[in-house]
């Protein structure tokens, strides 16, 4: 019987069935990454729509209502459609390879997690054409605005339910894979750091995705079934929604940042040709962020009216998060210190990440100060802050990850000069787009408004030009990836990076459909661990 | 074989390609779109809802059917068993967090929102001077007069029923561990009977609330938290009962033995989770 089931695990469907009925972690990872790329361009087009309107003061292209829909959908699609699925896709592809497991723990459920995403995206896009248009309350869906919208709001609510179900199942899969599927000899404190950050991320998501589901369910019943959760007329409170939303929303920020930390912690040691500095402190910092992220949600609500003591609590807790984050940044720098550095594209993106994420971290620290935040709440300073964290942070790490692992996935080289061009172009265009927003915010330009005062014109025009350039740069990326898959730049080596020692580099190139069907030999695991741990006595 | 490989299956079970996830995705799409249309009075929504529900049922029968067949053919080794246990534990954790959102809403409304609305200052004096801060909250521009649900009567009986059902389920579990099929089946029959009784009494309580107490979803923040908390709990009791029915049918068919009965354990964990939520609910929603 065992032999029979073992054989059936080799069965592979072909054509469309391979993707629709997939149970293979690599196929499902690929689906996630392609979906994320499609959503990245969809959300990106919406961002360009926003920047187009903001090129000049006054109303040029869109009705304010439609502008608000663009802002809302851009946020929802980028967060739930692009960044999160891309990280889940990477976890799918890489965790079994890195941990020496034959697949994810629940292969069929894995496919359901993915295939719930296209329906959710469809609901969001359908909402653009229903009467009243898409949700226009911002990605945070604050009532009373979100109670007043039309059918588009309901579609967004159900899309969030689907996305939540997908996230919970995907996260349970990741947690169980990490806890139960590691190769013999790979204890928790010997895992690659990407596995650690994926574990903590998935734990956060299991904890908070249901809370978001609860919040939007209350919105739904307030909208259609007469409840008064968020309506003062019946004793409810719109601020309650903000509390519940941000109880989800702040851990969500780390859900989009922690996997990036993990990726960068894989890339930098490889190209510095040194083991990761302070591995154990990295793990503890990740866990500390995982705990602290539940205790800071109030810093999104300083301007809403909270008792001073509560404000102080959230302010100090927020500042405290800078400590583990600082540990990470110093560890990355210490890893590079006196390394034999080379700057291939993944490394460029990783170093770019460290620089720009730190800028975003510092502007976050500025915003954590309650009296300062009262001034900057809902200004472009906030927009600048979270785009430094999410674009130069999460997105740059994702680009780095794709360039880093693409040779192993596809078996081919990508075009190195084109990759470098993509990095520098993105780096410059990103800063042209978002750096001026700090000044706009400090000068008082509010976010989510399609018009602005005349004195903000020049910086806005600069930002719009930057955004168009940034969008163009991403075409280079897609071109490079597609040409790589079509083998235009030659086959890749088994181990394209000489400083890489984790287990995924011990499978053939391109990674075959099934890998580690029986756990890797313990000697192989130990060899990789020794190479990772050399020089700092952690083994 | 190396000692450190002890816990690892020689070949971890990886299922063949399956249509069920895709069917499930289409089902949830139909349910989501259908619900959005239906609550906005588009008749086609009901059609979508019905087809989504049908697809979901088909998927659940097909998918669980596959899993049961694989389990009964002993395709799963011990490592797969651990995956299932971890997975179920984390799933229940996610359910705990779902209820936490609604309990959080209840606590926030009771101890922060309502007192603040009733406080001096500008809260209500100008807009609704007759507002008085109390719980269950009775006054407000859109609150029709109602009687809150008491803790005596049905809720107390239901507490006893649910606690007893936990005991009978454990009794059935002991029987399974000792290989006594008759006691296993009778324990499960009693548990399912108690579950059905709980649901019937809950329905009677809702009828009482709507028909005689004028307590509806629209009865201010009290009605909202009361019905959403007890309603979602009731829904989970329903799901738990269905799980137990499946376990009962499989026990009657001769599935499970002393060592391989993860499905029983999972259903039991779920049932105890539902039990614990009820206790919290009884204390904070009905009693205090």
From TrEMBL, chain A:
GO terms for biological process: electron transport coupled proton transport; oxidative phosphorylation; respiratory electron transport chain. One of its GO terms (cellular component) is plasma membrane. It catalyses: 4 Fe(II)-[cytochrome c] + O2 + 8 H(+)(in) = 4 Fe(III)-[cytochrome c] + 2 H2O + 4 H(+)(out). It is found in: Cell membrane; Membrane. Keywords: Cell membrane, Copper, Electron transport, Heme, Iron, Membrane, Metal-binding, Respiratory chain, Translocase, Transmembrane, Transmembrane helix, Transport. Its main location: membrane. This is Cytochrome c oxidase subunit 1.
TrEMBL record, chain B:
It is found in: Cell membrane; Membrane. It is a multi-pass membrane protein. GO terms for biological process: aerobic electron transport chain. The chain crosses the membrane at residues 20-39, 46-64, 84-108, 184-204, 224-249, 269-287. Residues 8-288 form the Heme-copper oxidase subunit III family profile domain. It is an enzyme of class 7 (translocase). The keyword Translocase applies. GO terms for cellular component: plasma membrane. The keyword RNA-binding does not apply. GO terms for molecular function: cytochrome-c oxidase activity. Belongs to the cytochrome c oxidase subunit 3 family. PANTHER family: CYTOCHROME C OXIDASE SUBUNIT 3, CYTOCHROME C OXIDASE SUBUNIT III. This is cytochrome-c oxidase. It comes from Chitinilyticum piscinae.
